[in-house]
Amino acid sequence: MAAEIGVVGIHGIYVAWIVLLSISTQVSGQAVAAENVTVVEGGTAEINCKLQNYDGSIVVIQNPARQTLFFNGTRALKDERFQLVAFTRKVVKIMLSDVKLEDEGGYFCQLYTDDTHHQIAILTVLVPPANLSVAVKQQPVEGQDVELTCSVDRTKPAATIHWFKDRKEIKGAVSRQQNDKTFSVANTIRIHVERQNDGETITCEASHPALNRQKKQLHHILDVQYSPTVKLQHPPGVLREGDNLGLKCTVKGNPQPTSVTWSRLNDTLPAHSDIQGDVLTIPALSMLDNGTYICEASNIHGRASDQYILVVYDPGAIVEAHTSTPYAIIGGILAVLVFALICVLIVMVWCSVRQKGSYLTHEASGLDEHGEAREAFLNGNETHKRKEEFFI
Fold first, then answer.
1. Which among 156, 136, 158 is positioned nearest to 147, based on CA atoms?
2. Partner residues linked to 179 by β-bridges
3. Each residue of 130-160: pLDDT tens digit?
4. Cα-atom radius of gyration of the chain, to the nearest Å?
5. Coil, strand or helix: which one is 300?
6. Nearest residue to 149 (alpha-carbon basis) of 128, 166, 173, 129
């Protein structure tokens, strides 16, 4: 029994000695640590290999292809983009400029002692959306639907694309395609357009981690085609013989009509008229210039016209028209007076008829009373006669 206790005691001391030796080795041994790095393509990456208890052993830095970049501070790969900026007992620091997507991967920090120690620093390269583009499937025409696609060809990770109009999002169909390490992203929308939408702005917006919460935008101006509208501008007022007439034809359409056509309804234009594009001028007007003048324009989507009826007066007619105004006023006043007089006569006749009816009624009543008196008188005489006969 004592022998067993002695063996157990010796075994426990041996295990404790091994544990202490292991702890002492970890405390006094060398170690290396690495930090992961994320950088935007074209930027500069800083790769750090941190050393612990470094005693001057060999330190080797390798790229993802396991090519040695630096061997104990000495350049081994002729790539001037890699620069050793620090080599101390605590850190080995390398700067990589103009980072490319091909530089992405694990960089090995290796420490050669009795045992080789190494750690890997993962370099992640972000590729932001460089150029947004908008493709229009067909030419927008009023009254139709148009399909617009906003796309970006090369991003990492995949960008997010949205459409906006008047700060309101337009939902679309999103598609992604992977090309090696990068992604192509597209967002397609379909909207209905009218002529009032021509010239409006619609925005394609992309977001990406490399943009630091900012947005990359592309503003697209809608080019909606529509048939023309025509408005003929003419001078106000009455035109007299000898005046000059200028008519301007204002045309709006998309595509914009390049020319306008002037004509006179059922007649030719006056020989002395002059046309300068959208302006028709007729000097020294006469009554022979009277008529309906028409301006017409057209494009591939239709045609439109507007007209102006020209009436030329002689100066005498103009004066007569102006002097007739007081007589019209006087005539109106007389009409009012005649109407008032007629109303008065109607009232007088009505009152007269009403009074006559009342007189006839009283007269009829008097006749009735007179008849009764006459009847009484006659009856009285008969009674007297009867009395006379009795006394006889």
1. 136
2. 182
3. 899 999 999 999 999 999 999 999 999 999 9
4. 57
5. coil
6. 173
The per-residue pLDDT for range 292-313, each reduced to its tens digit, is: 999 999 999 999 999 999 999 9
Q: How far is CA 240 from the centre of its chain?
A: 50
Q: Is 246 helix (H, G, I), strand (E, B) or coil?
A: strand
- Yes or no: say if 149 and 188 are a contact pair by the CB < 8 Å rule: yes
Provide the terminal-to-terminal Cα distance of the chain, rounded to the nearest Å.
Answer: 202
DSSP letters, 121-186, are: EEEEEEB-----EEEESS--BTTEEEEEEEEEEEEBS--EEEEEETTEEE--EEEEEEETTEEEEE
Are 63 and 105 spatial neighbours (Cβ–Cβ below 8 Å)?
yes
228: its two tokens: 């023309």
- Distance, in Å, from the CA atom of 219 to the CA atom of 303, rounded to the nearest integer, reads 32
- pTM for this prediction: 0.64
How far is Cα of residue 225 from the mean position of the Cα atoms in its chain? 17
Give CA separation, 162 vs 165, 168, 224, in Å. Answer: 10, 10, 22
**Quick check: bond before 255 cis, omega within 30?**
yes
DSSP secondary-structure letter at 255?
S
Is the distance from CB of 249 to CB of 283 less than 8 angstroms?
no
> In the predicted model, is pLDDT for residue 9 greater than 70?
no
Backbone angles phi, psi at 345, to 5 degrees: -60, -40
